[in-house]
Amino acid sequence: MKALITGATSGIGKAIAQELSRRGVSLILTGRNENALLQMQETLPVHTEIIALDLAENQAPFTLYEFCKNKHVDILVNNAGFGVFGEFTETALQEELELLQVNVRALHILTKLFLRDFKKRNFGRILNVASSAGFLTGPLFSSYYASKTTWCVFLWRLPRNSAGKRAVSPSASSAPDQWTPGSTTVPAYSSG
User: Fold this and answer.
1) Who's near 94: CB < 8 A, 6+ residues apart?
2) How confident is the model at residue 159 (pLDDT cuts 50, 70, 90)?
């Protein structure tokens, strides 16, 4: 098995990479910090490929997909994301636009492209690391809340596959084994 993990150099993404490597899953890791990616590549106990890029850049999701498309990825972990803190009228517009590129646009592109591949192969899994912010509102983080709400609603609206199961199903846990609560998993297409 092989997994692609975005935002893999720290936090939840790094923890998922470490856990999957302990389970023998080969990895493709991406993030902005090339040095951190190189260090992970050297220390993880499985075959690990890396590609340093910033998903806020317009072509980055497509570049990542092109890098991966012939590598037989079985699991996509959409983990990359960030927030912008402050009064909405005071926060930097450019930073918020980058937030939307990463938190919404890149996830949308990667989910669509990999889901198409998984459907053709009749197998694949997608883990979308979400946030309780997708179900809440609050001050000083409005763009982040909006981006997570958009994504959570989108996942619930994806069509069902031919077996009547959701092609993408937000849940707290799903195969392979059990994922962490608060994540969104996708038992995308499986013949079993």
Assistant:
1) none
2) low
Q: What is the pLDDT of residue 67?
A: 98
Known catalytic residue: 144?
yes
Q: Which residues of 5-40 are buried (b: 16+ CB within 10 A; e: fewer)?
A: bbbbbeebbbebbeebbeeebbbbbbbbeeebbeeb
Cα gap 165→82, rounded to integer Å? 31
Cβ-Cβ contacts under 8 Å for 98 (sequence gap 6 or more): 56
Residue 129's DSSP bridge partners are 183
In angstroms, how far is CA 8 from the centroid of its own chain?
A: 10
Annotated catalytic residue within 65, 144, 145, 189: 144
